[in-house]
Write a structure and sequence with these properties.
83 residues, 2 helices, iron-sulfur, Alpha-Beta Plaits, alpha+beta, YfhL-like
Length: 83
């Protein structure tokens, strides 16, 4: 699955620079995660870095974008140009 940012986001700006795929950007009201770019940091780190730094724990899995670790790895390979 990709991740999502919920309404509890306080726009603290710490998650965006942590994303190795540039999947996080400022939305109209809160930060948003592009599910086409989010790999849950598969290929980069053992755990999603945005979740690690979020002070309000508002970055859960996105149930509308279910993906296995294998699919996330394939997405990482395409995004990184290693496919």
């Amino acid at each position: 699955m990709s991740l999502m940012i919920t309404d509890e986001c306080i726009n603290c700006d710490v998650c965006e620079p942590e994303c190795p795929n540039s999947a996080i950007s400022q939305g109209e009201e809160i930060y948003e995660i592009d599910p086409n770019l989010c790999t849950e940091c598969v290929g980069h780190y053992d755990e999603p870095q945005c979740q690690q730094v979020c002070p309000v724990d508002c970055i859960p899995l996105d149930p509308e974008h279910e993906e296995s670790k294998e699919v996330l790895m394939q997405k990482y390979l395409v995004i990184s140009g290693n496919a």
